From TrEMBL:
Its EC number is 4.2.3.4. Keywords: Cobalt, Lyase, Metal-binding, NAD, Nucleotide-binding, Zinc. Catalyzes the conversion of 3-deoxy-D-arabino-heptulosonate 7-phosphate (DAHP) to dehydroquinate (DHQ). Residues 176-319 form the 3-dehydroquinate synthase C-terminal domain. Its cofactor is Co(2+); NAD(+). Residues 62-174 form the 3-dehydroquinate synthase N-terminal domain. This is 3-dehydroquinate synthase.
Length: 355
């Protein structure tokens, strides 16, 4: 697979990834290397990674507990303290080996420690490969509010090795698939079509589909690195999806949702809004709803859940001047950003989702 050139960094795939990493390390005068992992990637993925890493530099492994609930400033403080105790300096290199929580948090830690040290992402989950590791967004949650604290700062490179996916549970694979579905819906109708009949799906082509998903996200980010315009399209499904994810994260009576599970529901809801605003045909909406519901189990919403989800919408990062702004689809494969939607229409979207 050919290398994808992003804004000031390359994205390497499979057989090219480790050769590029080892050459980069050998040509730079790093003082030492810190590898940030969670407990899952430490067990399942780090041995694979270390077997491909060639360096005489001192390597320190920093592990934290997996899970979105640990993507917070408290975990950052702990790791900043560890870096300090282990004498990390401006010439240290940080390697983030893991899923989206690891790359989000690790990139933020590296971007802020001593005003910034170099870092590289090695995503090990589907979600991290096609979304979290690409685009330069790094950050942490503020309480249950997703990604409220962060920076846009690109890594030196991203290494995508799909053999790590053999260690990923099926529910995590489905979580990552949601972002791939999104890329088709907002940008490439033919790409979306490949997912509409998963029973006939050839998983031998999955690496190519991952590549195309990364390509789509990168093409959008290259046009708008700081999310002032077209990059907002990547938030399709996320305005309501993030609110749902945050609500289920904070509510002890609810089972915490994976990111992709919440975004899948968000895409159905926001497709309904697109239809109701005249941007999407009813048969297109029906196709989207049927496809996503075939892959993901329904999320059960009680009436008492809707109000707190609404309250969380005000914290969405796309909001301007106190108005909730949606990125909606204008037909399959096209997007329309900065869309205002009345609360009554959102309520109807939840009702339709349940039917």
């Amino acid at each position: 697979m050919q290398t994808i050139q992003a804004n000031n960094y390359p994205i390497y795939f499979n057989e090219n990834a480790y050769a590029a990493l080892n050459e980069y390390i050998s040509n730079k005068k790093f003082s030492n290397i810190f590898i940030i992992v969670d407990n899952h990637t430490n067990e399942h993925c780090l041995p694979i990674f270390l077997s491909n890493l060639e360096t005489d530099l001192t390597i320190e492994i920093i592990e934290f507990e997996s899970g979105e609930e640990n993507k917070n400033i408290e975990t950052c403080v702990q790791i900043w303290n560890v870096l300090t105790e282990l004498k990390a300096d401006r010439k240290s290199l940080v390697l983030n080996v893991g899923g989206g929580v690891v790359t989000d948090l690790g990139g933020f830690i590296a971007s802020t420690f001593k005003r910034g040290v170099e870092f590289i992402h090695i995503p090990t989950t589907l979600l991290a490969m096609v979304d979290a590791s690409v685009g330069g967004k790094n950050g942490v949650d503020l309480g249950n509010l997703k990604n409220q604290i962060g920076v846009i700062n690109v890594p030196k490179m991203v290494l995508i090795d799909t053999q790590y996916l053999e260690t990923v549970p099926q529910n995590e694979m489905r979580s990552g698939l949601a972002e791939m579905l999104k890329h088709g819906l907002i940008y490439d109708a033919s790409y979306w079509k490949t997912f509409t009949d998963l029973d006939a799906f050839d998983f031998a082509d999955f690496d190519k589909l991952i590549y195309r998903s990364v390509e789509i996200k990168n093409e959008i980010v290259m046009q708008d690195p700081t999310e002032n315009n077209i990059r907002k399209s990547l938030n399709f499904g996320h305005t309501l999806g993030h609110a749902i994810e945050s609500y289920f994260l904070e509510n002890e009576l609810k089972t915490t949702l994976l990111h992709g599970e919440a975004i899948a529901a968000g895409m159905i809801l926001e497709s309904y809004l697109s239809w109701q605003k005249g941007l999407l045909k009813v048969d297109e909406y029906s196709q989207i709803k049927a496809c996503i519901k075939h892959i993901y189990e329904d999320i059960v919403f009680d009436q008492k859940d809707i109000d707190p989800i609404f309250e969380l919408l005000v914290h969405d990062k796309k909001n301007e001047y106190g108005e909730i702004q949606f990125a909606l689809i204008e037909g399959i494969g096209k997007i329309k950003i900065n869309q205002l939607v009345e609360n009554e229409m959102i309520l109807k979207a939840f009702e339709d989702y349940k039917n």
